Amino acid sequence: MALPAQRLNVARKLIDEVALQNRIVELGHAITRDYADVDELVLIGILKGSFVFLGDLTRQIAIPHTIEFLQVSSYGVGRRESSGTINLKLDIHTDLTDKHVLVIEDIIDSGNTLNFIIQHLKSYSPSDIKICTLLDKPMRRKVQMDADYVGFTIPDKFVVGYGIDADEQFRHLPYIASVMH
Ligand code: IMP
Ligand code: MG
Predict the structure, then answer these.
(1) What is the distance in A from the centroid of ligand 1 to the CA of 75?
(2) Which among 5, 1, 2, 3 is positioned nearest to 170, based on CA atoms?
(3) Between helices 17-34 and 51-58, what is the axis angle to 10°?
(4) Each residue of 99-121: pLDDT tens digit?
(5) Residues 6+ apart with CB under 8 A from 140
(6) Separation of alpha carbons 10 and 43, rounded Å
(7) Is the four-CA dihedral 155, 168, 143, 1 of positive or negative sign?
(8) What is the Cα Rg of the chain in Å?
(9) pLDDT higher than threshold 80 for residue 141
(10) pLDDT band with cut points at 50, 70 and 90 for residue 1
(11) Cα 160 to ligand 2 centroid, rounded to whole Å
């Protein structure tokens, strides 16, 4: 169903700025601790939704790491669900062989997007692949997908802000808001 962005109502703050930053400090500490003995850690941010989260998270990780970006097809204007068919729009251009990959995602919904991304990244023979997602909507899963690091588990609501969009709008909001439509 097509929903022009200007007709969306930003209903209410779900997660405010302070809660986001506090949780990201905790995630950064956990990642720093878990990867302390690892030589090569690569964070792979999934564009576009993860860019704000990744920017804050990287500054809370106190061990050396590099950053790459991967982009897959979004659901398209007016859609509120990802399809089972995901397309690669931007690939990484670095050697991942034997490196430790941590995928940074904005939100897991059906699990289809990350399922595709994990299968794709496996073809590069990294040492291991883990997932860090800011938000998780576990009740919406269509394929099994468990993140290793989850910022917040949220109810079945469509959310925007802090990098996450509705038809490319609202990424600039410094908090997570739920949207009514
Ligand atoms: P999945 O493939 O269904 O798991 O959806 C994952 C992708 O859909 C995320 O990377 C988001 O870009 C997008 N997405 C899922 N839920 C929401 C939401 O509530 N608001 C905005 N985008 C969402
Ligand atoms: Mg999106």
Answers:
(1) 8
(2) 5
(3) 60
(4) 999 999 999 999 999 999 999 99
(5) 109, 110, 156
(6) 31
(7) positive
(8) 16
(9) yes
(10) very low
(11) 9
Contacts of 27 (CB under 8 A, 6+ apart): 57, 60, 132, 149, 151
In 124-175, DSSP assigns E strands to 128-136, 149-153, 159-160
Best residue among 51, 133, 164 to mutate for probing ligand 1, ranked by most atoms within 8 Å of CB = 164
Model pTM score: 0.93
CA–CA gap between residue 149 and residue 114 (Å, rounded): 14
| Cα–Cα dist 121/70, whole Å | 10
Question: Tokens 């590099």 appear where?
Answer: 66
- Give the C-alpha separation, 92 to 71, whole Å: 9
Residue matched to tokens 């430790």: 100
